[in-house]
Amino acid sequence: MAIQIEKEFDVPQSVDDVWAFLTDPARIVECLPGAKLVSEIDERTFKGEIGMKLGPIGTTFQGIIRFDELDAERHHVVMTGEGKDERGTGSVRMSMTSDLTPGADGGTRVWVSQTVSLSGRLASFGRGGIIQSVADFVFGRFTGCVREKLAEAGG
């Protein structure tokens, strides 16, 4: 089962400051609830894990995330990832495109389009809208954290 997520948000910092943050896996993972960066495979490929709870089922996915495109001139990113849950009862695949554009008053607008495909036991929760609700919650937490971290950095 695949779900499509499209979101956008604004931050008061410059495109360059936001780009530096959103292309640094160590900083990104700080803003993803339940996520952990395990190791760097190469400069564009990382091993990590993320815990999720959907309804009564909680699991941890372990997998790989890769920056397939990093275009600093256009402020365009394409990432892909895949992982398996620790019990071997499901898997997740993700592709995400992000674009940064100058916003009002020197700030930045961040646009994100993501496709997430779940298989196994967790996929059954997509029918009731639970996955979309969790995605909305996680995105809200992520954007709040990004804003906070950028403000703390003065960038």
Keywords:
155 residues; Alpha-D-Glucose-1,6-Bisphosphate, Chain A, domain 4; seven-stranded antiparallel sheet
Would you kindly provide a written description of the structure presented here, covering whatever features stand out?
With 155 residues, this protein is of the alpha+beta class. It has one domain (2-153): START domain (Alpha-D-Glucose-1,6-Bisphosphate, Chain A, domain 4). Helices cover 24% and strands 51% of the residues. The chain has 3 helices and 7 strands. It has helices spanning 15-22, 25-29, 130-153; strands at 2-11, 35-42, 45-54, 57-71, 76-85, 90-102, 108-120. Strands 1-7-6-5-4-3-2 form a 7-stranded antiparallel sheet. Strand 4 (57-71) and strand 5 form a beta hairpin.
- Helix proportion: 10-25%
CATH architecture: 2-Layer Sandwich
How many E strands?
7
Arrangement of strands in the largest sheet: 1-7-6-5-4-3-2
Low-confidence stretches: none
From the helix content, strand content and strand pairing, which structural class follows?
A: alpha+beta
The end-to-end distance, rounded to whole angstroms, is 39 Å
- Whole-number total of structural domains: 1
Cα gyration radius (Å): 16 Å
The major sheet is characterized as: 7 strands, antiparallel
The pLDDT mean sits at: 86
Q: Brief overview, please?
A:
The protein has 155 residues and is α+β, with helices and mostly antiparallel strands.
List the helices and strands and how they pair.
Elements: E1 2-11, H1 15-22, H2 25-29, E2 35-42, E3 45-54, E4 57-71, E5 76-85, E6 90-102, E7 108-120, H3 130-153
Antiparallel strand pairs: 1-7, 2-3, 3-4, 4-5, 5-6, 6-7
